[in-house]
Amino acid sequence: MTSLIAPPQASTIAGQVDALVLFLLAVSVLISLTIFVLIVVFCVKYRRSATNQVGQPARRTAPLEITWTLVPMALAMIPFVWGARIYLDEAQPPADALEIFVVAKQWMWKAEQPGGQAEIDAVHVPTGRAVKLTMTSQDVIHSFYVPAFRVKADVLPGRYTTLWFQATQPGEYRLFCSQYCGTDHADMTGTVVAMTAGDYAAWLTSGNTATNSPAAQGRKVFLQYGCVDCHETGRAPNLQGLFGQPVLLSDGSSAIADEAYVRSIILNSDRVPLGYQHDMPAFSGMLSEDELSNLVEYIRSIGTGPGAGPPQPAAVIPLPGPSPSPVPSGGSARQ
Ligand code: HEC
Ligand SMILES: [Cu+2]
Fold first, then answer.
1. pLDDT value at position 327?
2. Nearest CA among 262, 240, 237 for reference residue 326
3. CATH 2.60.40.420 residue ranges in the chain?
4. For the residues of 208-235, what is the DSSP string, one character each?
5. Residues within a 6 A CB radius of ligand 1
6. Share of the chain above pLDDT 90, in %
7. Ligand 2 centre from 180 Cα, in Å?
8. What is the CATH code for 213-301?
9. Which stretches of the chain drop beneath a pLDDT of 50?
10. Among 41, 42, 73, 113, which one has the highest count of C-beta atoms within 10 angstroms of its own C-beta?
């Protein structure tokens, strides 16, 4: 369950921030009320009673003036010292904090655990342990904001910023980008999943993160840009088993379907396998460098030739699409 209304004690700092904000609110209400009441009372008490009444000249009353300077100052110092302590606490991650790397880009959050487990728009953290995020942006300024934890920090291109928190209760907490960063800024959301230490350890080894491996992300890009509409419908060569294999081209030459080949076909659609009409749109300028390399990883992962397969042998990737078959079903023109 993702709660919009943040529980009051979701992180160690949340309660302190809330108390300070409530204190400021109470002081503001008190001062405003005092002023309003005095305005009304003085209006009535000192109203002009006769048309020829003249006001008294102002008197200097040093003790009164000193009092009304010192008392509000002392009042103002309370939230200042209090806030500074919380600020310093928030600015200094404990030395033993768990370090997670976060990369922001239009429009997603990527998080990487110390063990290399990567995820998109989600950050899994253990409860009861300080977590330090080291963050940077691939494009514009974003801002990492978890209201439930009362933490927020800007994420800047070309610079690392940090933020830390310690979740106290297992649960799913909303993550927002709080810096307007372009068209889909409002969709740049995610979830911080706080788990007990045991659940977190189990999650780390569960392989759940494999769905966010480059190849699995590549599969998403493959769906997103409609590559499936041609490549899994018979309109275009089926890409299963392609990677690493020699390909006969319609101009009579041949090529090895390696990374360079796949990249240049996706970007420029410059080569046509034998037996196919030139029909593939060029995706140059439409794909980010990231999407492109994920696509290549995906095509590599469904290949069977030399150099194909997932980059790490351990990564058995549960793909949402049809399961790769060792025999290429389409692409009859391929050798
Ligand atoms: C409109 C249909 C269409 C779409 C959409 C499309 N392709 Fe293609 N693709 C083709 C066709 C047809 C070919 C054969 C060569 C050509 O047309 O230039 C091809 C060739 C390829 C090849 C070389 C295959 C081989 O056997 O050598 C790769 C790799 C490829 N496409 C990847 C992609 C990716 C990745 C996407 C999505 C970003 C994509 N294609 C989108 C139709 C499409
Ligand atoms: Cu953003």
1. 41
2. 240
3. 1-36+69-209
4. GGGGGSHHHHHHHHHHHTTHHHHHTTTS
5. 222, 225-227, 229-231, 235-237, 239, 242, 247, 257, 262, 265-266, 269, 272-273, 276, 278-281, 283, 295, 299, 331, 334
6. 35
7. 6
8. 1.10.760.10
9. 1-4, 309-335
10. 113
